[in-house]
Known about the structure:
The chain is an alpha+beta fold. The protein has three domains: about 5-65, RNA-binding S4 domain (Structural Genomics Hypothetical 15.5 Kd Protein In mrcA-pckA Intergenic Region, Chain A); about 65-170, Pseudouridine synthase (2-Layer Sandwich); about 170-365, Pseudouridine synthase, CATH 3.30.2350.10. It is about 20% helix and about 25% strand. It has seven helices and 17 strands. The protein has helices at about 15-25, 30-35, 110-120, 155-165, 265-270, 285-295, 350-360, and strands spanning about 5, 40-45, 60-65, 80-85, 85-90, 135-140, 145-155, 170-180, 185-190, 195, 205, 215-225, 230-235, 245, 250-255, 325-335, 340-345. The strands form four sheets. Strands 4, 5, 6, 7, 8, 9, 12, 15, 16 and 17 form a ten-stranded mixed sheet that branches. A three-stranded antiparallel sheet has the order 1-3-2, covered by helices on one side. A two-stranded antiparallel sheet has the order 10-11. The longest helix has 13 residues, at about 110-120. The chain is elongated, with a radius of gyration of 25 Å.
Amino acid sequence: xxxxxxxxxxEDSNKPLKAIVKEQFAFSSRxxxxxxxxGAIKVNGEAVPNWVGLKPGDVVTVDMPEERSEFPxxxxxxxxxxxxxxxxxxxxxxxxxxxxxxxxxxxxxxxGLMYKILQEAADEEGNTDPDKVYKIRLVNRLDMNTSxxxxxxxxxxxxxxxxxxMHSTMVKKYVALAEGIIKDxxxxxxxxxxxxxxxxxxxxxxxxxxxxxxxxxxxxxxxxYECPHSMVYGSExxxxxxxxxxxxxxxxxxxxxxxxxxHQIRIxxxxxxxxxxxxxxxxxxxxxxYREVYxxxxxxxxxxxxxxxxxxxxxxxxxxxxxxxxxxxxxxxxPVTGKEMHLEADLPDDMKNALxxxxxxxxxx
Length: 365
């Protein structure tokens, strides 16, 4: 159970309990109402009305109500970058779905987190300490084949605060290996994104007047690799033309998200003409235009609701079996301690191996 505590100072004399809680903890109105109904807000260990004036030395405590997730626990290796009683940061490995869905009920990151929570809450006799079991509250998500930092809040206050920071002051940095040599050392990609077809999982550039959302990505080229290689457009199965294009090399890019749209980095780099290496959805740019020109090799929709998911993604790169995208850095303010947090996650092995391969004289030829 998470506990928040504040001891009143001289300047707090005669302030009502409601004002003290609002000033010191900045709970949302919704959470405040929930805490009052649960009797979780106390002064010197006792419940008192919100309007009661307090005096210096009084101790206000707030115990977050006990909540827990009910995902099936599943043992899996987890790379914990940071953890305290309020939040947890995991370096997610590629190929892992974050949240259980109808199509992926097991083998997800949350199944692994549930196992971790229950193991750490159990004593030697196997009894579970309920104070150590918390509801898993995701602050951010990553695509299955994107690796990097995932933040988990252990109570609703921390989640609300971090989500607010996500949309304002939190700095989220990614590193990607992109197709081709990006000429500019740095730049801002300002292209609105949307979902042209509700039956497809892909997004693309959509004008604001047509429902697109403002999307901003800043990038900086870290290194360029002159490593010519080919990319094939079209397939016999699609019935369209088949072309082979020569790409002049690769660019290692650092990216900062000023907005957080689905597939934002992947689409923005593809729209720039430099898709993320190994990205089977956007490796050829606009997927909707691509299918018009080269045909659609995928099986037809079967009438199921929701977007079509590609269960057998095409391998589109000789050096990466998934999109070469990694969420490597986070900067934020700890919601409880006020400490400036800077967390980093090292590149996964597959990206390290890809960079080593294209750095060698033979490159990707």
